[in-house]
Amino acid sequence: xxxxxxxxxxxxxxxxxxxxxxxxxxxxxxxxxxxxxxxxxxxxxxxxxxxxxxxxxxxxxxxxxxxxxxxxxxxxxxxxxxxxxxxxxxxxxxxxxxxxxxxxxxxxxxxxxxxxxxxxxxxxxxxxxxxxxxxxxxxxxxxxxxxxxxxxxxxxxxxxxxxxxxxxxxxxxxxxxxxxxxxxxxxxxxxxxxxxxxxxxxxxxxxxxxxxxxxxxxxxxxxxxxxxxxxxxxxxxxxxxxxxxxxxxxxxxxxxxxxxxxxxxxxxxxxxxxxxxxxxxxxxxxxxxxxxxxxxxxxxxxxxxxxxx
Length: 309
Hints:
Blueprint: H1 7-10, E1 30-39, E2 45-55, E3 61-62, H2 68-73, H3 77-94, E4 100-103, H4 114-124, E5 132-137, H5 138-143, H6 145-158, E6 161-167, H7 174-179, E7 184-187, H8 189-194, H9 199-214, E8 218-221, H10 227-235, E9 240-241, H11 258-284, H12 292-303
Parallel strand pairs: 2-4, 4-5, 5-6, 6-7, 7-8, 8-9
Antiparallel strand pairs: 1-2, 1-9, 2-3
Helix pairs in contact: 3-4
């Protein structure tokens, strides 16, 4: 298939949009925004979560709270799910290095043709299923476990990764929790925030992390807003982090090696600083770092950078 971005490709299986909401809700007003999920150990981007926004007639970008009530009232959540999935898979076709995660609405449990729709798009756009990750809120599992389990199994049969989003209550029976063939669990902001000041909450989160790791699942700290929350997530052993502290949502996805490249840039900067100090000491006699032992080590390294020290 060509990567030309033809109108036929862009419009392939695009869901019909109801006129019930009027022209203000034209398809082109919906925008995909992205927030990366970083792996704390590897430093890479695990995936980008897709966040839907709507640009209103006054050109103001609205969050879901600004348009979902109208979409829900018009019974169009299923169509919105398909709209987002279509755009995401098309983007994965254009940028195969990406991994994108989409939140499904509760109506996905009742959409008996959704998995077939996803399969057809994956085949048509020649996208590897593992590039697409799909998320279900924990509240959906608590309310409708059996249909949720069935949907998860169907999505896994496609080869997609499946995540449970906004884990907070932990009220699902352990037997049911272990039956879920999921790949990752995102832990709600409230638990991460509480674990910064309450040791008992931190112990609970740590137990959740250990249990999921034993089941082969990753854990993600959601909405990490500051350094304290990040330290708490690390103390609990959480695998990945997402939030404004690491990167705010933007209108283009972060690529897989974004954080690795940042680390490389920091290393290059550090080496440049050491080189500057070394040059000042060697050529100008200006010693900004007293201590001959330190400079002996630096001199030896530059004299034989690849040798054994």
